[in-house]
Specification:
4-stranded mixed beta sheet; alpha/beta; 3-stranded mixed beta sheet; 7 strands; 3 helices
């Protein structure tokens, strides 16, 4: 298996509302299939898919999808000053702040928010792993 994540799919209750949430953060929706909303990112794609549809694909009851899975998605930024405004934009779009922007023990500056369906996002500035000029993150920098 090659080391890559090609597509991250989030199970959502209301595809239109969730798409509007990510569009409010400045992401551009890709034209595509009915029932799925996709946002092309750097190196992968984020897909929004109905909870019921994903449960059917998995062969499990819809109620089995939910709660904190232990997975977070991270959006790294170039400076510590970018963290708080991005958290504010997420909150204004309907997200919930889980941890306000602030310093973290390893020397970075982070905050967390949950999207409309409770998917947890970290917004982080890691001074030890600078983003590429295109915005790609690599552990340890370039």
């Amino acid at each position: 298996m090659e080391p890559r994540v090609s597509l991250i799919t989030l199970a959502v209750k209301d595809i239109a509302a969730s798409a509007a949430f990510y569009e409010a953060l400045g992401w551009e929706r890709e034209p595509g299939n009915e029932g799925v909303v996709a946002f092309n990112l750097l190196g992968q794609t984020l897909g929004l898919y109905s909870r019921a549809g994903l449960a059917e694909d998995l062969g499990i009851p819809e109620e089995a999808i939910g709660g904190f899975s232990g997975i977070t998605l991270a959006h790294n930024v170039r400076t510590a000053e970018e963290v708080a405004p991005l958290l504010a934009a997420a909150e204004e779009a309907g997200g919930r702040i889980l941890r306000p922007a602030g310093e973290i023990f390893w020397g970075g500056f982070i905050g967390y928010f949950a999207d409309l369906d409770g998917h947890v996002w970290e917004v982080a500035h890691n001074p030890f792993s600078e983003l590429s000029k295109e915005g790609a993150f690599r552990w340890g920098g370039y």
